[in-house]
Every structure is written in C-alpha cells, then in structure tokens.
C-alpha cells in the first residue's frame, strides 16, 4: 500500500503542522492518498529506546527505525519536518519533562558508575545530536530556492546590513595541527574489514573500534586535531580579540559533530576561563562540571556548592570576564553567552545570520559589535572569510538583484565527517592510532598525544556516483554553471576529485560549464556571479552542503526555511525535507507567551507538492499530480499576496497563512479542468472559504495576545496543542 509518511517532530515545526496537516488530509482524501504520521520527536525517540522502563500503555514504536528502513525501499515517500538535534542540555530537559509526566526512564548519567548506568548512557548517546537526518538520508541532497520564492524576495527584500571596508569582523582559523592539515586519505581497491587501534608508548594496544567492513571503492580518511595546537590557538585568539576590541565568538556544529565539537567547545571554555579553572579546578571536577556541555553547565553545577564557596567562584568568574574580550551573546538580556550551550550557536545558521547583520553580533550590552568568528578547523572556515572579505570589498549583497546558489550535496549513507561519530575518539595517552586491515596492513596512521581528537570518515562509492549524476542533471535542467567545491590540496578531496573526473565521463557534458574549485576560490567565483545577478550551482560534500544551504539562502531569501529540499533516495524513493531551517525554539517561546506563531510553513508547502508529484509518478495517480500542481500555484499566490506569517502579535501568524494556502489551493482545484471530480468537490469549498474569510481570520487573530498553555515543551498535551493550533471553528467545520 502506497502512502505518504509524514513526520511529527518538535518545537515550532511540530506546532505548525498540527494546523496544516488537517488541511492536507482533507484535500487529498478523495484522491486515494493516505497519509500516515510517524513520531520522531525527541520525546518519542527517548521513549522508543526504553520500553523496559515503561508501563505497557506508555511504550511507543521506534518510528525512526521504521522510517530508516523504509528510506532504503523504492516505495518510500517521506515528508520530513525539522527536528531537534539534541545537545546534552536539551536531552536532559526532555528526560526531566518525561519523568515529571510519569515515565520512569533513567536520568542521563554524566559519569556512569555501573553497568546499568553505562547501558542507559549508551542508549541516550544514540539519541543525542543529529540522530535523525543521517538515518533517513539514504540519498544525496538537492536544495534550491524555487522561482516563486526568489521573486518574492526580490519584491519584498528582507533587511540586509551594510558592509564597510573598515569592519573589524574576521574569521580566525588554525594554520596547523587541525583536521585539515593532518588529514590522510585512501581509496580502497578491494573490500576489506578494518580495526582502529591505539598503541601507547609502551606498545600496549587498545582497540578503539572493533572489526567492521568497508566496500570496494570506498574513500576513507583519518585525521587528528592536536589538543596542544588547539589550546594555544584559543589563547592567541582570545588575546587578539581583546587587543582588537572585537567580540569573541565560537562557531561549531556540536549537534552534527556530536563527539568532536563538544570537546573543542569545552577547550574553548577552559581557555577562556583559565584562571577560574586553575584556581577551582579540583572543586569543579568534584562536583562533576563538564564544560563540553558549555559554560552553562558550570554555572548550573556551582549552585550545589555552599554559598560562600559559590560566591567566591562567581566573583572569580566576574573578574575573569573583565580581563577577557567581550563574548558574543545569544541573549544579552539574560546574560547567555555564546559559550553557554553548545547547541545555541550552530555554525551553518550563525555565520550567515552574522554576515546578514554587517558582520556584527550582540555584545553583553545588547548592542551590535564587530566580531572575531573563531572556527578552529580550517577545512571549511575559508568560505566564511572569503564571503566576509567579499562583502567588505564590494558591500552587502542586495536581495533585490542577487542571483541564486542551488546546492547538490553529497550526503547519502552518512558520507564524510557527518558519519564520523562512531569513529571519533578523544585520545587517552600518547602513542599511535592505526587503521589496520584484515591482513594486518596499516592503511592509515597518526602519532597522537593525550587529548588529541582522532577521527575517521567514510565515503562510499555508490553515493559519489549518484551525486555526480545529480550534479550533471541539475546543471543540464537549469542550464546553470556548476562548481564542485573540492580542494586538490586536501587529502580527502584529492581522492574525491579522481572519482568526479572518472564519473563525469559517463555523461554528455557538452555545453555544460562544470568546474572543480577549492572552497575559497569557489566562494569568490560564486559571490562575484551572485552579486551580478547570476546563478551558480554549488556541488559540495556533506559539511559544505549544510553550510552553503544556509549561507546563500539566508542572504538571498532571508531564511533557509523557504528552500525546496529534495533527497532523491538512491533506491528510488523520495525524502522531502521541509526547508533547510531548524526548529526555531524562539518561535515556541513567542507562541507560549503571546499565542502568536511566526513559523513559516512555506518549506512544508513546497515539500508536500514534490511529495505529491512523486506519489503521482510512482502510483500512476493523475489526481495526485493535479493536487501537486495546484498546491504550487497556491504557494505562488500566497507569496504574491504576502500572506506569510508576520513576526508581530495580533497580525497574521502561521495559522492564518494556512487558511490562505487552503483557500488558494481550493480555488486552483476549482479552476482547473483536467479532473472533473476534483473540480466539483472543490468548487463549493473554495466558495465557502472565500465567503468566510473575515470570520475565519478574526477567529484566528482574536485569540492572540495572551499566554497559551500546552502543558509541556517536548511532549505537550495533544488535546491542548491541537486546540491551540486549530482555534477557528468556521475553518475546522469547512475542512471536515
Ligand atoms: N533539518 C533539521 O532537522 C534541522 C534541525 N535543526 C535544529 O533546530 C534547532 C534550532 O536551530 P537554529 O540553529 O536556532 O536554527 P533555526 O533554523 O531553527 O533558526 C534560525 C532562525 O531562522 C529563522 N527561521 C528558521 N526557520 C524559520 C521558519 N520556518 N519560519 C520563520 N523563520 C524561520 C528564525 O529567525 P527569526 O528570529 O527571524 O524568526 C530562526 O530563529 C536545533 O535544535 C537544531 O539542532 C537545525 C537545522 C536543521
Ligand atoms: O540534522 C541536523 O542536526 C541538522 C541538519 C542541517 O543543518 C541541515 O541538513 O542543513
Ligand atoms: Mg543546516
């Protein structure tokens, strides 16, 4: 039975879909399209791994595993909403909420003391960070701004901060000792199995990862980030930020890079608050402070100390703040710095947001100030320094006239760094780490020191072939130059370039402008064309896919949430992501306080249309095709008439925009002549929606302005949240 699988996730997207999905279900019902919801929210994912701790009626199925298996089958048709990629603080908050609601799951054991706690931690660690997308993404990524979205941005340009030549904002990155500079890479001539081993200075061998298989043609690379080099880099950059009077700000991807980046984050906190750690290290250790979870963890943990001791530490922290450069703030009103929580500042969104704001971030006084953006590893930092330099030289981009940068991203089967967590280790003692094959040949080796971060990445051959094909297809279909962002001086990229050159020969590329440029050159080439209003496809690896699909969309159309984001699954199915944006916790806060949800579901409209189109092709269902086409028309109309949510309470919000999408969709169905029964069904509905417009909008806006209680954040009360998201009796009656 062919269905569209819809995901239930978290935060703003989950609120929004409770208003939209009833519309969708009502519209597709007569066309033989079934929609099934699968719950992959953080709360559900936690409950799914602890059935043995729950009462029978509290147990839930492991919907993520079900969808993951589905993604490898041709019949997959999945609409994927953004979900929380939980940092430890978010994970703990979700656990606490579940426990308070009577779910007897274990607490997160920071330092497991026995086997039971170790087992609990290992279950939780699978849920931590970016644990959803890598499971569903059994294909490469095709993200672009649809024409209607670009046209809307040109007509209604979002604000764009000016850039001046004397901005002090800059990117700081390491010049040695980092992942980029230490990388080694090979392509396997034959399938094999490997183990990862650490040999200490006395020759004792520790198995870091036991035997696992690799495929023929797979690229593997290994590299290390030196702790010593990292610590001295942070020291220099903190001093330099002070000297230059710019904000210190750290940009990492603690969610996706869930093993390495929290460790790096922790070093930044320890170096920044060095004097506090020198003086109080033993106490902090004793109370279990773990700054890999951010400076916020220290603040939280010292609350347990006797008052005098706590006050002494707080005074020393205040003293240290005075000695150091100001830190960029996440929330200056609440005193939350960039170093408080690793998931607050996520590089893909934080760097473009800063570039949109003239390179400034908020300082502790709540004013915008030039910034030192610290991005330790130099593999990709250059794309941001090149963009910043370009803006300094040429001024800010103009959304009214700039071109567009679609992306074709290598992503399938946990490609590259984003699949490296189970092969990333914080090294315990000096020695050598080796990747050893089945015949005990050493494939890759690095001398290491205690505290270094060693990691290995895998890139399978079939995904690379599929990615090259997708790049050629997109370049041909859109008649747009395409640039492979690959650096011949980087070990991994050099291997990948060989494959790209080989597989490009499989295609007719005559008339196409295809290039391979190192990331910095690719940035400059792309930015120059972008400024001139020209389009350029970026064809990139997995990390740059993530970075570029926020960077350019945020500059071009204000947010990546308005992107069409398709994952053609390698086995023939389709995964349709609703934009590239995240789950916007700020939006939930506003909703709870003011009953106004400013989340824009545009990405969901776009994803649903391509999902319906895919459904029509696979199932030979002509009605699904008409539903897809008319939904796209409705989306264009919605953009044309500016019926998206406003940021301000009392004005149209997410729910109001869903009324409009329903109205325009019904009208488009009533106006088409290809299918008589859809026309007959939707003509009266369109009329009813139109004639009740003011009543419905009034019902949707009159409830705004006061707090709304949905009894929870990670697992709100279903009844309350559905009522809150569907407050118009008139609209509900028409839909039913
Ligand atoms: N695919 C996925 O599942 C992804 C999940 N995430 C997760 O999302 C959470 C938050 O991430 P964060 O880095 O803050 O990034 P977000 O993308 O959630 O938000 C950044 C900002 O972009 C704007 N924005 C994003 N989407 C929309 C939308 N649909 N409508 C209107 N405005 C939007 C909002 O700005 P404004 O203030 O102007 O309203 C928002 O504060 C984290 O838990 C993260 O792990 C992040 C990326 C992808
Ligand atoms: O899965 C995640 O944590 C984030 C995904 C993301 O940022 C992206 O794909 O753009
Ligand atoms: Mg991203």
TrEMBL record:
Look up the record and name the cofactor or cofactors this protein needs.
Mg(2+); Mn(2+)
Q: Where is the composition biased (Basic and acidic residues)?
A: 115-124
Q: Which reaction does it catalyse?
A: D-threo-isocitrate + NADP(+) = 2-oxoglutarate + CO2 + NADPH
Q: What EC number(s) are associated with this protein in UniProt? A: 1.1.1.42
Q: By what name is this protein known?
A: Isocitrate dehydrogenase [NADP]
In this chain, D-threo-isocitrate is annotated as bound at 143, 545
Q: Which Gene3D superfamilies match?
A: Isopropylmalate Dehydrogenase (3.40.718.10)
Entry's cofactor comment:
Binds 1 Mg(2+) or Mn(2+) ion per subunit.
Biological processes annotated in GO: glyoxylate cycle; tricarboxylic acid cycle
Write out the residues that bind Mg(2+): 348, 546, 550
A family per Pfam: IDH
First-level EC class: oxidoreductase
Q: Which residues bind NADP(+)?
A: 80-85, 133, 582-583, 587, 598-600, 647
GO MF term set: isocitrate dehydrogenase (NADP+) activity; metal ion binding
Q: Which UniProt keywords apply?
A: Glyoxylate bypass, Magnesium, Metal-binding, NADP, Oxidoreductase, Tricarboxylic acid cycle
Q: What organism does the record attribute this protein to?
A: Confluentibacter flavum
Q: List where this protein forms a coiled coil.
A: none
Residues the record annotates as the site (Critical for catalysis) are 253, 418
**UniProt binding sites for substrate:** 130-137
InterPro entries the record matches: Isocitrate_DH_NADP_mono
**Which family is this sequence assigned to?**
Belongs to the monomeric-type IDH family.
Question: Where is region (Disordered) located?
Answer: 104-124
């Amino acid at each position: 039975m062919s269905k569209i699988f819809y995901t239930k996730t978290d935060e703003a997207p989950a609120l929004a879909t409770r208003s939209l999905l009833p519309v969708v279900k009502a519209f597709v019902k007569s066309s033989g399209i079934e929609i099934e919801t699968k719950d992959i929210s953080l709360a559900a994912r936690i409950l799914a791994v602890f059935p043995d701790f729950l009462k029978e009626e509290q147990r839930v199925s492991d919907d993520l595993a079900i969808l993951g298996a589905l993604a490898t089958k041709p019949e997959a048709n999945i609409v994927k909403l953004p979900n929380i990629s939980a940092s430890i603080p978010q994970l703990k908050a979700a656990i606490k909420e579940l426990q308070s609601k009577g779910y007897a799951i274990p607490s997160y054991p920071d330092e497991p003391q026995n086997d039971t706690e170790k087992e609990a931690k290992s279950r939780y660690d699978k849920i931590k960070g970016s644990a959803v997308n890598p499971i569903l993404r059994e294909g490469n990524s095709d993200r672009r701004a649809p024409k209607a979205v670009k046209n809307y941005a040109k007509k209604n340009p979002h604000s764009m901060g000016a850039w001046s030549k004397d901005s002090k904002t800059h990117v700081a990155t390491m010049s040695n000792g980092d992942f980029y500079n230490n990388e080694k890479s090979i392509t396997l001539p034959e399938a094999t199995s490997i183990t990862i081993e650490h040999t200490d200075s006395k020759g004792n061998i520790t198995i870091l990862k036991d035997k696992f298989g690799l495929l023929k043609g797979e690229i593997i690379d290994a590299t290390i980030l030196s702790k010593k080099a990292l610590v001295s880099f942070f020291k220099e950059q903190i001093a330099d930020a002070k000297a230059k009077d710019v904000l210190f700000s750290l940009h990492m991807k603690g969610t996706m890079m869930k093993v390495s980046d929290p460790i790096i984050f922790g070093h930044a906190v320890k170096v920044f608050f060095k004097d506090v750690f020198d003086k109080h290290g033993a106490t902090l250790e004793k109370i279990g402070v773990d700054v890999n979870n951010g400076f916020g963890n220290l603040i939280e943990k010292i609350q347990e100390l006797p008052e005098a001791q706590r006050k002494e530490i707080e005074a020393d922290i205040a003293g240290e703040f005075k000695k150091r450069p100001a830190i960029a703030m996440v929330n200056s009103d609440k005193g939350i710095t960039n170093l408080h929580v690793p998931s607050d500042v996520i590089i893909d969104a934080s760097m473009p947001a800063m570039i949109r704001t003239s390179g400034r971030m908020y300082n502790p006084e709540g004013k915008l100030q030039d910034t030192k953006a610290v991005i330790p590893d130099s593999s990709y930092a250059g794309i941001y320094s090149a963009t910043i330099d370009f803006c300094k030289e040429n001024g800010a981009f103009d959304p009214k006239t700039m071109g567009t940068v679609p992306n074709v991203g290598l992503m399938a089967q946990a490609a590259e760094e984003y699949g490296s967590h189970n092969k990333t280790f914080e090294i315990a003692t000096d020695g050598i780490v080796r990747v050893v094959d089945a015949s005990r040949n050493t494939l890759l080796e690095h001398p290491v020191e205690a505290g270094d971060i060693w990691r290995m990445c895998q890139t399978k051959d079939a995904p690379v072939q599929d990615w090259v094909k997708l790049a050629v297809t997109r370049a041909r279909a859109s008649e747009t130059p395409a640039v492979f962002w690959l650096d011949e001086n980087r070990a991994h990229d050099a291997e990948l370039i060989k494959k790209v050159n080989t597989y490009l020969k499989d295609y007719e590329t005559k008339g196409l402008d295809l290039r391979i440029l190192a990331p910095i050159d690719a940035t400059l080439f792309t930015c120059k064309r972008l400024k001139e209003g020209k389009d350029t496809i970026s064809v990139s690896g997995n990390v740059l896919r993530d970075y570029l699909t926020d960077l350019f969309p945020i500059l071009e159309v204000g947010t990546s949430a308005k992107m069409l984001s398709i994952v053609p699954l390698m086995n023939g199915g389709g995964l349709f992501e609703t934009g590239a944006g995240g789950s916007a916790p700020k939006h939930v806060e506003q909703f709870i306080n003011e009953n106004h949800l400013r989340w824009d579901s545009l990405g969901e409209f776009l994803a649903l249309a391509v999902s319906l189109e895919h459904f029509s092709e696979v199932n030979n269902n002509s009605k699904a095709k008409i539903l897809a086409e008319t939904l796209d028309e409705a989306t264009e109309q919605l953009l044309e008439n500016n019926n998206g949510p406003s940021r301000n309470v009392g004005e149209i919000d997410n729910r109001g925009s869903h009324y409009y999408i329903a109205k325009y969709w019904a009208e488009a169905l009533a106006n088409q002549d290809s299918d008589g029964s859809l026309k007959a069904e939707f003509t009266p509905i369109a009329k009813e929606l139109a004639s009740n417009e003011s009543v419905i909008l009034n019902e949707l806006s009159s409830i705004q302005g006061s707090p709304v209680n949905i009894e929870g954040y990670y697992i709100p009360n279903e009844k309350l949240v559905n009522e809150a998201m569907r407050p118009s009796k008139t609209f509900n009656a028409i839909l039913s």
